[in-house]
Amino acid sequence: MAEYRNIRNFCIIAHIDHGKSTLADRLLELTATIEKRKMQNQVLDSMELERERGITIKMTPVRMKYSVGGTDYIFNLIDTPGHIDFAYEVSRAMKAVEGAIVLVDATQGVQAQTISVLGMAQEAGLTIIPAVNKIDSPLAQVPETRKQIAELCGLDESDVLLVSGKTGVGVPELLQAVIDRVPAPNVPSEEGFRGLIFDFKYSNHAGVIVYLRSFDGSTKKGDKLRFAASEQDFTVLEAGIFAPVETTVDSLSAGEIGYLITGIKEPGIASVGDTILSAKGREAPLPGYNRPKPVVWASIYPESQDDFTMLRQAIDRLRLSDSSFTYEEESGGLLGRGFRCGFLGMLHLEIITERLRREFNLTLVVTTPSITYEVVTKRGKREVVYSAARFPEFGEIAEVYEPWIEAQIITPGEYIAKLMPMLYEHEAFLKVTEDFGNNRNLLVIEMPLRELMRGFFDDVKSLSSGFASLSYKIMELRKADVVKLEILVAEEIVQAFSRIVSRKRAELEAEAAVEKLQTILPAQLFATKIQGQALGRIISSRTVRATQKTLGDFGKNGGDRTRKMKLWQNQKEGKKRLKEAGIGKVRIPQDVFLKMVRKD
Asked: Which of 3.30.70.870, 3.40.50.2000, 2.40.50.90, 3.40.50.12780 would CATH assign to domain 296-366?
């Protein structure tokens, strides 16, 4: 049992690629948590996808021991993701700690996501320790960055620490600041155990393993505990800490962060944000987390319907390690049975589908992503629609409402002229322009969430040569001028290709979609018409020519051409009869669906 007065619980928060995981590596080295011979880069990023992309996707807790002046301290660190799509992970980590190191890259300065995560930490009441990273870089602008972060945090510049996650310079001073500034856990006098679940995972042998912050009392192997929300009792099979691998301990006490093996294998019993209590205790549950609201929706289908059960099991399993996406079963006509899933952003969607492919060896078809709309029909009925396939027909709609966002873009001043036409194209309007210092400007804009999903982030990065940063928050619903664009193949609507587009872009989007499909759809035995339909009419059309069966070497060495013409005519009439009989239905290969979803 650790002395709670010597425990320091903290997390590292920052904009993406500002060096959180590299700094965590140096902390693990300094505290000798990992032997030097076992050390590797991004040691807390255990997922293959994290290492491959160089980003943190899952928050990772780790326990470190450190001695200063004869006193032994326990550090519980949670390394957090930096991308805005994983802000829910960051918010959960903040509920388990008392302090936060806010890290800023000296070569980039304060970025949009820095402001966002700092605001979250301040709202959570955490003690803030600002630090400037990468001070060893020849491109570092240390004085300017130090001044920026000090003004943002409302602190003196002397309170901002200077570190290098690469070389380890300033890391001992940073740990000392954690000891001096971050308060020890507040441990009440109640004896009953209370712990907040901030994450969990599933093991085939051990069942659900909950990651929790203990607030009151202590627990050990054999104790009877209860999930407050599901009111399900269980016996602790093992209590442990992250050092950084899961390590068994005798007991988990107030103020500590660790895990409990529950042995429960039924889904739906454990949930993020739930409180674990003593089985016979009457303590009130701890405040949990707000449920995340999906921003992007997409349907996921197995390439073969034989894999549907496997896909269901994979999604159930993945949901245990990522509680921020939602799903429900649906049927997609030509695509068969699948799942309609909600995600926190486009990167989140990409990561989840990639994990399903890699970790469960599944071949998937993912439909065009969409957002949630609120539709009022001419009969006065109001309904929430999160799929283009469920969008009412053009003549039935009275009004449509869509979510808007407020976005912050921080960019060097020379790129503003390039960004302004792009903002207009994405239906955004500029609210505020401020000088952000160091030849940078802060642009505050409002725009439809629909347009953010249409490659807005990529456009900002491209036009600013990668120097601009973006963060956003969801606002209220506003009236939308949108229509449903449907793609017909051989006069049949293919629901997977349907999407909601701006009315003024309907023709452009329809032309682009049918032209792309024309180039990738395999030729059939008969001419295949591809059409784009919106506003109650056909607005674009292309035709894929029928396959032309060759007649071998017939007539190659001369002879009467009349015979060949007659055979071609018979072939043409045969294709016509096939189509009229309904036998000429187009079978669309699964790779065509994948290519249609991809932006390129």
From this structure: 3.30.70.870
Report, at the CATH architecture level, how domain 194-278 is classified: Beta Barrel (2.40)
- The pair of structure tokens assigned to 204 is 């085939």
User: Are the CB atoms for 57 and 82 separated by under 8 Å?
Assistant: no
Output helix, strand, coil percentages for the chain, rounded to the nearest 5: 30, 35, 35
- The 3-state DSSP class for residue 423 equals helix
Question: Which of the listed CATH numbers 3.30.70.2570, 3.90.660.20, 3.40.190.10, 3.40.50.300 matches domain 483-597?
Answer: 3.30.70.2570
Of the CATH numbers 3.20.20.140, 3.30.70.1350, 3.30.590.20, 3.40.50.300, which one belongs to the domain with range 4-181? Answer: 3.40.50.300
For the domain covering 373-479, report its CATH number.
3.30.70.240
405 closest CA partner among 426, 384, 375: 426
Distances from the Cα of 160 to the Cα of 99, 101, 106, angstroms:
15, 10, 12
- Successive 10-residue mean pLDDT values, the chain, 600 residues: 78 84 86 70 59 66 88 89 76 89 90 86 92 91 91 90 91 94 82 85 84 89 89 91 89 91 83 85 76 83 88 86 82 78 85 86 83 90 85 88 92 91 92 84 93 85 86 90 89 83 90 89 80 90 76 55 72 62 60 66
Give all strands (DSSP E) within 349-468, no chain letters. Answer: 364-366, 373-377, 382-385, 397-412, 429-437, 440-448
What would the DSSP string read from start to end of 145-187? Answer: HHHHHHHHHT--GGGSEE--TTT-TTHHHHHHHHHHHSPPP--
DSSP for 462-485, written as a single string: HHTTT--EEEEEEEEEEE--EEEE
CA gap 440, 413 in Å, rounded = 5
Q: What is the 3-state secondary structure (H, E, C) of 91-148?
A: HHHHCCCCEEEEEEECCCCCCHHHHHHHHHHHHCCCEEEEEEECCCCCCCCHHHHHHH
